[in-house]
Amino acid sequence: MNNDKKPEKITIFDVAKEAQVSKSTVSLVLTHSDKVSDKSKEKVLKAIEKLGYVYNRDAAALRSKKSNLVAVVINDLTNPYSAQLAVGLEKHIYALGMVPMLVNTGEDFKRQQQVVNTLKEYNVSAFVMVPAPGTTKEWVNQLVSSGFPVINIMREIQFADAPCILPDNQKGTHLATEHLLNKGLTSLAFLGGTEEISDYHERLSGFRSAISAHATPVKSYEIMAPTNRQGGRDAFHEIYRTKPDIQAVVCFSDVIAYGVMEAMREHNLTPGKDVKVIGFDDLADSRLMRPALSSVRIDANDIGKRTCQALSEILNQSQPPVRTLVDISLQIRESSS
């Protein structure tokens, strides 16, 4: 007797027969449709469990040429603002009748490539990405030309074939720097960020433009640092070691500013009194700091709303704006007042 014969694969027709429902009813249950009664759903699920049926969701997506999944590719989920951003996106993606699939690249372009290649196999409807450092327009364009809508957010890949949704970074740091200059301060520094990312250049540009526009001469300094708390600590230690007369700092982010304020205290300096500090992002914890941190506020909900407006246009065969700037606001608190 030959026992090598493979068992026949359970099909959707077998499930329908076992549950005593139509094939279309089984399909509705498998795709989580609300157009099927609870009773029929229960019968189908029991039949699936009894028969051991496995739904090949990849194949189904390929047959329909689409899924309801939107890949949200975030650069660094350890950053508190990324969590705010993810929540803002999630709300508006659900409002489109779609489901977000959140993944983290850890600021690693190779990991971003691997993640995207895997998600392409699920035939996601679109990619919403905060691009990792090293992302090129050629890579983005190849993804778009392979049939996947792409929207870049928070960071711009210049001249890529994908729309981008950005906070007005330059305006934010310009207003922050201008606020400090109007207090008569003459020695300022911009701390944090790295040159591989577009938002660093935009925020630095706003700092420089405010310095250039000021009526009287100002001493200004710039120090790059990783965009984490330790980066802020190291940046302030460096600026204070070489320029002990520094009067104020504009930080690339609130997280950088937290590290800066910690480092100040190690030098027996009082943030807001001895050296004024302004961050960027306006995280929820910033108003709880002592002193409360002044910061440039980016509305994550507005970023999510604008992103999904662009996504809706793409899915409806329309062309959204190439570049959308979302306005910011300067929140003045004790650290700079």
UniProtKB/TrEMBL annotation:
* CDD domains on file: HTH_LacI, PBP1_MalI-like
Keywords of the record: DNA-binding, Transcription, Transcription regulation
The record's InterPro entries line, in alphabetical order, gives: HTH_LacI (IPR000843), Lambda_DNA-bd_dom_sf (IPR010982), Peripla_BP/Lac1_sug-bd_dom (IPR001761), Peripla_BP_I (IPR028082)
Which GO molecular-function terms appear in the entry? DNA-binding transcription factor activity; transcription cis-regulatory region binding
- Which Gene3D superfamilies does this one have? 3.40.50.2300, lambda repressor-like DNA-binding domains
Ranges that cross the membrane: none
* Boundaries of every HTH lacI-type domain copy: 10-64
Protein name, as recorded: LacI family transcription regulator
| Lineage of producing organism | Bacteria, Pseudomonadati, Pseudomonadota, Gammaproteobacteria, Alteromonadales
